[in-house]
Write a structure and sequence with these properties.
This protein is α+β, with helices and mostly antiparallel strands. It is 44% helix and 29% strand. It folds into two domains: 61 residues, no CATH class; 123 residues, Phosphorylase Kinase, domain 1 (2-Layer Sandwich), CATH 3.30.200. Strands 1, 2, 3, 4, 5, 6, 7, 8 and 9 form a nine-stranded antiparallel β-sheet that branches. Helix 3 packs antiparallel against helix 4. The protein is elongated.
């Protein structure tokens, strides 16, 4: 019970001091363990959820650094990230001279190599859809349909990276994909 009172007191102090208010996954996970040890299962569960949330945010920040502000003269718009029901998505649109390229990384939030999106992409890549190419040691498929071009790259660590545009041709989109740090992004994901 003393530990719980101490945690509550530290939390109140943290609310008053901006310096102490910064949460860290390490502290949050330790707090969850302490609450569990004190028999406060509800508090431990809530703190453990916060720990996972902070870890997911750190992972998302790590991924975001590979969506560069500029690639081949294309300027990136605001990065969009979503994480729901175990699936994560990171998307950024790039523009150059009224031409647009959209880049989307999709996969499981808890990346375990058995990613459902990667499995589906592999089926699509091997089922005859589009022209097969290799981009940065990854299998990719280029598909063109009614002026819309997509390049689906199956990542080794799970997930799919999709490059899409209705304003550039397949060759330009492939050049863009080749300039994107696919290998570094994939390798950074553990």
């Amino acid at each position: 019970m003393k530990k719980r009172a101490l945690i509550i007191m530290l939390a109140m102090v943290g609310m008053q001091s901006p310096l102490l208010a910064k949460d860290s996954p390490q502290d949050s996970c330790k707090n969850a363990a302490a609450l569990y040890a004190d028999g406060d299962l509800d508090g431990a569960l809530e703190e453990a959820k916060w720990c996972v949330t902070l870890l997911e945010q750190m992972k998302q920040e790590n991924i975001a650094k590979f969506f560069k502000d500029s690639i081949l003269g294309y300027t990136g718009a605001e990065l969009e990230s979503q994480n729901a029901m175990g699936f994560s998505s990171t998307k950024r649109e790039y523009e150059k001279d009224s031409s647009y390229v959209s880049v989307t990384l999709s996969g499981m939030a808890a990346n375990n190599g058995m990613d459902a999106f990667a499995a589906l992409a592999q089926i699509g890549l091997t089922a005859g859809g589009g022209k097969k190419v290799r981009i940065q040691k990854r299998t990719a498929s280029i598909m063109v349909d009614n002026g819309n071009t997509q390049i689906l790259v199956s990542l080794k660590k799970g997930g799919t990276l999709v490059f899409e545009s209705s304003s550039v041709n397949a060759d330009e989109l492939q050049r863009f994909a080749e300039a994107f740090p696919i290998e570094e992004l994939d390798d950074s994901r553990g």
